[in-house]
Model the fold of this input.
Amino acid sequence: MTRADEDRSNLLLDVWTQVKWLDELGFEDVDCHWKWRELALFGGVKPTVERSYRSD
Done:
């Protein structure tokens, strides 16, 4: 099977592009923790937003 035969919805971008997206979305400590062939485990931490609530 060639790349042209693959299902287009199953063609992923490289892991570092996806890690960059998380970083651009505001996640912190974004990294690829494990990669083997086409499988990867990556993620980051979304910082919490402090909100002030008024109680009347």
Q: What stands out?
A: The first strand starts at residue 28 and ends at 36. Helices lie at 15-24.
